[in-house]
Amino acid sequence: MNITVIDKHSSNYLSNFHKENGFGFHINTLFDIPSPVNTEQTDVFIIDCSTARHPDFSLTRELRSHSRSGIILIGKKNNPDDLIVALEMGADEYLAQPVNYRELSARIRNLGRWSRMSLEHPDNTNAKTDTQVSHFDGWQLDLVRQVLKSPTGQLTKLPKNEFTLLTILLNNRNKLMTREALLNSLYHREWHPSDRTIDMLIGKLRKKLNDYQKETALINTVYGVGYIFAAQTDVVPNPTPAPLKT
Question: How far from chain centre, in Å, is Cα 54?
Answer without folding.
Answer: 22
